[in-house]
Structure prediction request, 277 residues.
Amino acid sequence: MSQQSPVTPVAVAAIQMTSGPDVAANLAAAGALLERAAREGARVAALPENFSFMGRADADKRAVGERDGDGPVQQFLAERARALGLWIVGGTTPISQQPGERVAAACLVYNDQGERIARYDKVHLFDVAIPGRAEKYRESANTAPGARQVLVPTPAGLLGLSVCYDVRFPELYRPMAAAGAQWFTVPSAFTLPTGRAHWETLLRARAIENLSYVVAPAQWGRHASGRETYGDSLIIDYWGAILSRLPSGEGVIVGRLDLAAQEVARRDFPALSHRVM
Prediction:
């Protein structure tokens, strides 16, 4: 898929939150941060995983799952995108076909007219025990996995969508880069121990090996369940350099994606065309 690169760099924002079990409160916090991103000149803003809901128990997400195409979270994203003239990558929203079923962790993208133009369901689910700690997760108990990659043209270039644990699987990203992806979003709620160990390294690796920008908005802090997330939202360029970061606290970071410079780098350092397997 070919993509015309903007002549001038495009500002994108990553938003960091500490979401809880009150959907209305989370949406109010997200709305204020989206307004700040728009004031700071962002054309596209990305929210973290679980931005609208982090319950006291993982199963609680079943009760707030929305039907695809309708519900307060989806209405919020459409309205905010339209009102702010801002493209929004909506972290993840619990979407289910039937009330009470397992939900999809759906990353929904809205354009600046408030139209939904893409949906990506998180493919890789976090079913792990943290080595050396009494922390265990079984995301698949309440979340149904997705099964396909999603690319979407945006004002900041061709975007490949991913979510959190996906970042550990480089085979998800390589075909999207081969298809022309210029940047990736990785909305996340990384645990504190895995974040300390691997967060920055994984994100920079995905950027470097694909010569692609990576925008990673994160959850930060202690949540109602007792879970503590790592934060450290990052915007990384195609050479692996960190353009902007927010180690802790709620807030917004902005970085500029220079796709013309990226195109030159990909031409002069053509690693993507040297693949043999």
Q: What stands out?
A: The mean pLDDT is 96. Helices lie at 23-39, 61-64, 72-84, 170-178, 192-210, 259-268.
